[in-house]
Amino acid sequence: MEQLFVLFDSIKVLSPELRAYIKSILVSRSVKKKEILLKEGQVARHIYFIEKGLVRSYRFKKGKERTSWFMKENDVCVSILSFFLQTPARETIEALEDCVIYYITYEELQKAYELFPEFNLHGRVILELYYQLSEKRNEMREMSTLGRFEFLMERQPELMGRVSQKLLASYLNMEPETFSHQKSIFTHKKGKNGSDQGIEP
């Protein structure tokens, strides 16, 4: 829980009253690997903070499963449109590892904004960050195949050791075979440049 308050305080230090209120409404939950937090068609009732573990969002496009994003420790996790509009989700959120999460409901968040107007700043900043990440991912998907792979290695290299190649390929909108090829190119390129930061095969 403390890491969540580190996040809040990095935006603006919470008042003791607001801190106590958030602690009183936060719920802790252990989630097993492959457990579904939100299923497509359901209305997102909760916004999550991941204390431990890794989750992903995916949806089906042209009959194929496409991973939209990954979130890990110290990230806020939510189906944005479904949660804030309280409409059916167009995505599914799945745990890729055993996780420990904290969450509050939509109604509790709105009440916190009403009771503590200063908390609106925290909500706005986190939402802005979420949309910036979303925009970066959209830009990534317009890049070349190698550009998409380099985006992954520059921004989320830790996923290489935690996520299957099949899901990473889905995230980068390429076939697993193409992913393997780009990985080889990237590794060779790093080695050629004399870098010791290349990925292990």
Walk me through the topology:
Layout: H1 2-11, H2 16-25, E1 27-31, E2 36-38, E3 46-52, E4 54-61, E5 64-72, E6 76-77, H3 80-85, E7 92-95, E8 99-105, H4 106-115, H5 119-140, H6 145-155, H7 165-171, H8 176-192
Antiparallel strand pairs: 1-8, 2-7, 3-6, 3-8, 4-5, 4-7
Helix pairs in contact: 6-8, 7-8
Q: Can you tell me about this structure?
A:
The chain has 201 residues and is an alpha+beta fold. 46% of the residues lie in helices and 22% in strands. It has eight helices and eight strands; from the N terminus they run ααββββββαββααααα. The model is unreliable at 195-201 (pLDDT under 50). It folds into two domains: 2-117, Jelly Rolls (Sandwich), CATH 2.60.120; 145-192.
Quick tags:
201 residues, alpha+beta, Jelly Rolls, four-stranded antiparallel beta sheet, disordered C terminus
* Strand arrangement in the largest pleated sheet: 1-8-3-6
Low-confidence stretches: 195-201
Proportion of β residues?
A: 15-25%
The CA-CA distance between the termini, in Å, is 37 Å
CATH topology of the largest domain: Jelly Rolls
CATH superfamily membership of the largest domain: Jelly Rolls
The secondary-structure element order is HHEEEEEEHEEHHHHH
Estimate the helix proportion, in percent: 40-55%
Average pLDDT score: 91
Oligomer: single chain
* Global shape: globular
- Work out the helix count: 8
Total number of beta strands: 8
Biggest sheet details = 4 strands, antiparallel
Label the CATH architecture of the largest domain: Sandwich
Q: Which structural class should the secondary elements be placed in? A: alpha+beta
The domain tally reads: 2
Whole-angstrom Rg: 19 Å
In the CATH scheme, the class of the largest domain would be: Mainly Beta
